[in-house]
Amino acid sequence: MLSPSLLAANFANLEAEMEWFNKSSADWLHIDVMDGVFVPNISFGFPVLKHVARICRKPLDVHLMIVQPEKFVDEVKALGAYLMNVHYEACTHLHRVIGQIHEAGMKAGVTLNPATPVSVLEDIICDVDLVLLMSVNPGFGGQKFIPHTLEKVKELRQLISRTSSKALIEVDGGVNMETGKQLKEAGADVLVAGNAIFRAPDPAKACEELAKL
Ligand code: DX5
Ligand code: ZN
């Protein structure tokens, strides 16, 4: 599956971006919300996303790179989001937050930074619908893929089968045709890609090729 990241889109013309995107082979739209605290950057907030949600015809995959993400469950729900991803590093009471997301009627994802080991998921893996592995340090698009992520995907795949968890494996950061192929071979289910799609000469074609990996 493929979840193109809105962060690399042309913000001055989101309507035109959504026009090709809605017809593309993308499965979800990946939305990166940043707060300048959890990550050293700020992207866009709910007033902008409200309009994106109105014109996007694909399920929204919301990645919150913010502290205290539990404060925004209602806002994410109001967008009509399919999936809400929170960072393991941002949640003191992760189990409670996952419960709140489910109660709001959304799928719940937990995200790990590159320095956070897969082993921390042992006691939560059966409660989440998806694990998002960061293959760059979050905060910016267009960074270089961290190769160690491939080992983490394999380890996570083992944890999922050992525990009979239903969680999907999603990977985010520096994904292109080459790293995307390696990730799929390692066991990833969903690829996030920003620059490799929105900055390609033909974004719809780039989308189609990545979706086929
Ligand atoms: C990084 C974001 C990513 C980013 C990926 O903090 O979480 O979703 O948009 O962009 P690329 O694919 O360009 O690395
Ligand atoms: Zn992201």
| CATH topology descriptor | TIM Barrel
What number is the mean pLDDT?
A: 98
The shape, in one word, is globular
CATH class type:
Alpha Beta
| Beta-strand content | 15-25%
- The helix fraction, in percent, is 25-40%
- In N-to-C order, the SSE pattern is EHEHEHEHEEHEHEHH
The residue ranges in which pLDDT falls below 50 over 5 or more consecutive positions are none
Count of DSSP-assigned helices: 8
Query: Which CATH architecture is right?
Result: Alpha-Beta Barrel
Number of structural units classed as domains = 1
Order of neighbouring strands in the sheet with most strands: 1-8-7-6-5-4-3-2
CATH superfamily descriptor? Aldolase class I
**Hetero compounds:** D-xylitol-5-phosphate, zinc ion
Describe this structure in words.
The chain is globular. The chain is 35% helix and 19% strand. The N and C termini lie close together (9 Å). It has a single domain, classed as Alpha-Beta Barrel (TIM Barrel). It has 8 helices and 8 strands; from the N terminus they run βαβαβαβαββαβαβαα. It binds D-xylitol-5-phosphate and zinc ion. D-xylitol-5-phosphate binds at residues 5, 7-8, 30, 32, 63, 136, 138-143, 172-175, 192-196.
Quickly list its features:
globular, binds D-xylitol-5-phosphate, TIM Barrel, 8 helices, alpha/beta, binds zinc ion, 213 residues, 35% helix
Task: Give the helix/strand layout.
Layout lengths: L1 E3 L9 H10 L5 E6 L11 H10 L4 E6 L7 H6 L4 E5 L6 H10 L3 E6 L17 E5 L14 H15 L4 E5 L4 H10 L3 E4 L1 H4 L4 H10 L1
Parallel strand pairs: 1-8, 2-3, 3-4, 4-5, 5-6, 6-7, 7-8
The structure holds D-xylitol-5-phosphate and zinc ion.
The site of D-xylitol-5-phosphate (DX5) has 22 residues, from β2, β8 and α7.
